[in-house]
Amino acid sequence: MTVNRSLRCLLILFLSTHPLRAKALENIVRPYQSARAAGMGGIIYTTGIYEENFFANPARAAFNPKWRVDIVSQLFEANTGLIENIDKISGSGNTIENIAATQGKNNHLRVQTILPALYFPHIFSSRSSIAIGLMQSTQVDAILRRNLTVDPVMIADVGPAVTYARRFFKDERLALGVTAHWTYRVSTKETFSTTDYIKYNQFKVSESGSEGAHYDFDLGSHYVIPGRPRDWQISLSGAVNNILGGKYKNANADFIKQVGGPPRSQPTSYNFGTSAQRYSCLHLLQSCVFAFEVQNLGNNRNGSIFRTLHMGTELKPWGFLAIRGGVSQGYLSAGLGLDFPLLDLEFATYGEEMSLNVGGKEDRRYVARIGLSI
Known about the structure:
Helices cover 13% and strands 48% of the residues. The chain is mostly beta strands. It has one domain: Porin. The two termini are 40 Å apart.
């Protein structure tokens, strides 16, 4: 009974919106989150490995350290607002009063599962790599403004991804890659109101949301610059995600009706960056990497260019331990990774910019991931 009440309160909060749509949330919506990248200031295109390459730079699949099978990779993400408001949303008493007590704070939740995934750094030849995975991700953002209107974003994705990468040149310094996606998406309509929820008494795709499916592609490159100044390996990376525009309407099956049009799109984005990596770093670390990236050009919704800037580092004093830090959109991030046989644990915190300008409205988020692999 308590669970049903809690879900009902969350749905009322997440699915309500003002018909004039005075927007309050302007954060960049991403279809995938990485706990490793979150701790490194969002760095993913120049340093990504394994599952990070399904939705970032496919060329990096050529640099996966070894073959691997992910039995499951489970990620949870919540922000400070949801952590502080969860008792108010799910508590006893008057539902409307409980929700009203959360005003002014965004409520963010992401649950992401990759089940299963296979990675082969060398297949067909020593230059070719392939990765295959099935991902499900659900993310929610909702903020009750002080005029008691709500701006909701709720997106659920599911579908497979296949990544192929190949090294070129005699010294294999250049890698090019491509990822093919088929994704089914359900998202909230921007005009669904509290009155609609009370009327239908449930979240029905035909009345309160939109659904659609698409196939799309990512293209990526990674180039290792010749020479190693002071033993530092310098690399350049670039990638284009969703080259067909991410409209979720070019692969609809018979069961997908698309009442009211396709769901929220995932626009084409352009990303590039540089990284520097060194082994036996500072005589104390097994390895260290520093990187700077510009991300989500085309997926920034008229925001400041500073929202696209990311920089970060990963330090490994021992093979099983990774210490991470960085700056994402002007906000500090930090993370920790533990890589045991069969088990991966990762934790991170970072700040997401919820306004169009850096420094406007920080949304502090916390990420935890557990992975089982062989």
